[in-house]
Structure formats: C-alpha cells, structure tokens
C-alpha cells in the first residue's frame, strides 16, 4: 500500500510536469487527474490505520510533532533574522493562495505523508530484523541450556554409579576396621565418606527448574576451568517471569563471569558468587567474580566474538528495562559485580 502510494505520487508528478512531452494526451490526462491526488493520501492514511496496532500511528504522530517543532523553530529564527527561509515560505504561501492553495497544500501534505511513512516503514523493518535476531539468539541460549542440563544429568548419573561402587568398598573397609578395632582409621574414613557424600549431593541450588539448570551448568563449566563457584537462590518453584527471559538473562550473566575469570592468571583467585532472591514481588540478582582489570563495553569480558557479546549485553539491558530495572555494574580492586532488581509480572499487574 505504501509502495503504491509512493509510485502513484511519482507518476502523477511526472505526468503533471512533463507528461505531454512523451505520453499520449489521454494517458497524461488520466495520470494527472485530481482523483489520484486525493487517492494517494487516502492510501497513506489507510496504511497508518492498518498498522496502528504495531505502533505506526504513535510513531507518525511523534514524527509529525517533532517535524512541526523543528520547522517552527527554524521559521521563527529565519523571520527574526530576515533570512531567505522565512521569505521563501511567505512567498510560497502567497503563491499557493493566488494559484489554488488547496491543491498546493494537498500536494505537499501528500509528499510529507509519503516521506514520513517511508521512514517509519524502514524503521519498522530494521526493528523487526533486530527482534528476529534477538529471538534467534534467545533460542540458541535455551538450546544450550537444555543441552548443558542433559550433560549435567548424565554426569550426575555417572557420579552416582561411581559413588555406589565406591560405597561398597568403603563398607568392606569399615567392616574390617571395626573387626580389628582400628577406630582412628574408622573415624577418619567415615569423615572422608561424609565429605564426599556432601559434595556429591550438592546438585540443587533452588526449587526453580530453569534457574537450577542454569546454575548447575555454570557450576560444571566453572569447575572445568578451576573457578570456585558458589550460588544461593531463594527462588520459588514457580516464578512469575517467563522462562525465556530468565534463561537469556542468567545465562549471559554467568557466561560473562566465567569468561572473565578465565582471564585471571592466578587460578587460586578465580571465583564466582551468585545470589538470587525473591522478595515482595521483586527478583534481586547479583553476580560477583574476579577479573583481570580490563573492561570491554561495560563488562569484564573480551569475547572473541565481539558481535555476539555485544548482543548478549543488549539482551540483558533490554530484559532489565522490560521488568522495570537497570543493570548496575561496580568494580572494586579485582572484583567485578553486576546486579539487577526485576519486577515480576505479579508485581507489575495493577
């Protein structure tokens, strides 16, 4: 519809200005008809109405208000200084009044409608591509979360099987120690067994499946890179924030922290501390980690794929804004902290 209006405007102007030079008189008369002049703005207004739900009307009104304000300011400045712009506008208005003000005004109004709606259409197109790209990245992150969760479950099953095998050996050894009255060795072996059991059972951080899966995945990745990982998540099983947003936000947050810790040369100083807590309808998330002191784009990370890293940061900021929060970043010595408070859907309801 917008393309048809722009094409009709172009053809109509050419037909009016130079149609008699290269077109048959009948065709020239048809293309330069006043009905086309009326039809073009009708098409534009119909385009705006049909796309009103997608924000076209709101953006058109904002653009019109901004254009009118800028035009008015420039006109007043030109009028005060007596420069060419105000004189040209005044002469043009008088000329339109003398030669047919209504037709001239309709023409320029049509030109403005076509140009402004074209700008809006271009903006909407780029915005749609950006949304598609963001959704694609979110799906990749969710797929990664599912894959990591499956790997973590497989590893947990393997460790459980190994623990059962070792447990039989421990029982045999404990039985022999007890029969031979080697109680000191018995006590030491029991302490070691309790420590191993405590470490093996630390597979759940919270009742919330999504957050727990993400933290388990982050803990496994941190362990592979010699990073001390600790997490607390006082979050209920059902959280009134969509899983997709949680996945994108927390996965980007923990991935950035892990990647930053990798840059710390002293492995003893590598650590990540994650905390999440829900209180009065607000989800507070804080993640602290060690880093080497070098910052890129506001985060302690320098990923090889700068484009994807930048997209991850934008996604986190967008999610924070969506839930009424801001991404807060602080640095103290070799410690880097990112925190955010998100309003849940329940809190945002009137």
TrEMBL record:
Xref: InterPro entries: HATPase_C_sf (IPR036890), NatK-like_C (IPR032834)
Keywords: Kinase, Membrane, Transferase, Transmembrane, Transmembrane helix
Ranges where the Sensor histidine kinase NatK-like C-terminal domain occurs: 245-341
One Pfam match: HATPase_c_5
Designated name of the protein: Sensor histidine kinase
Molecular function in Gene Ontology: identical protein binding; kinase activity
Organism: Candidatus Ornithomonoglobus intestinigallinarum
UniProt superkingdom: Bacteria
Keyword Transferase found: yes
Segments passing through the bilayer: 33-51, 63-85, 105-130
């Amino acid at each position: 519809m917008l393309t048809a209006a722009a094409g009709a405007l172009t053809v109509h102007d050419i037909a009016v200005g130079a149609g008699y030079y290269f077109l048959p008189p009948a065709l020239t008369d048809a293309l330069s008809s006043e009905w086309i002049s009326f039809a073009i703005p009708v098409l534009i207004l119909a385009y705006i109405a049909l796309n009103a739900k997608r924000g076209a009307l709101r953006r058109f009104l904002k653009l019109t208000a901004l254009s009118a304000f800028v035009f008015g300011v420039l006109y007043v400045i030109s009028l005060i200084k007596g420069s060419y712009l105000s004189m040209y506008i005044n002469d043009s208005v008088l000329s339109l009044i003398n030669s047919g003000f209504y037709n001239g005004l309709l023409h320029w109004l049509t030109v403005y409608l076509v140009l402004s709606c074209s700008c809006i259409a271009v903006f909407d197109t780029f915005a749609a591509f950006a949304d598609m790209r963001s959704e694609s990245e979110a799906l990749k992150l969710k797929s990664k979360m599912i894959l990591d969760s499956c790997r973590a479950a497989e590893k947990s099953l393997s460790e459980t099987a190994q623990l059962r095998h070792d447990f039989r050996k421990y029982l045999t050894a404990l039985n022999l120690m007890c029969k031979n009255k080697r109680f000191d060795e018995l006590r030491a072996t029991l302490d070691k067994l309790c420590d191993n059991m405590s470490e093996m059972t630390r597979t759940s951080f919270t009742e919330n499946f999504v957050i727990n899966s993400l933290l388990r995945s982050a803990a496994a990745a941190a362990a592979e890179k010699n990073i001390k990982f600790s997490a607390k998540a006082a979050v209920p099983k059902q959280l009134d924030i969509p899983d997709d947003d949680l996945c994108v936000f927390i996965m980007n947050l923990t991935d950035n922290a892990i990647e930053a810790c990798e840059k710390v040369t002293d492995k003893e100083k590598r650590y990540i501390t994650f905390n999440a807590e829900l209180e009065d309808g607000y989800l507070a998330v804080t993640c602290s980690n060690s880093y080497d002191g070098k910052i890129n784009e506001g985060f302690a990370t320098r990923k090889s794929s700068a484009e994807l890293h930048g997209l991850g940061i934008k996604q986190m900021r967008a999610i924070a804004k969506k839930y009424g929060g801001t991404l807060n970043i602080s640095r103290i010595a070799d410690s880097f902290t990112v925190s955010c408070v998100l309003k849940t859907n329940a809190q945002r309801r009137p």
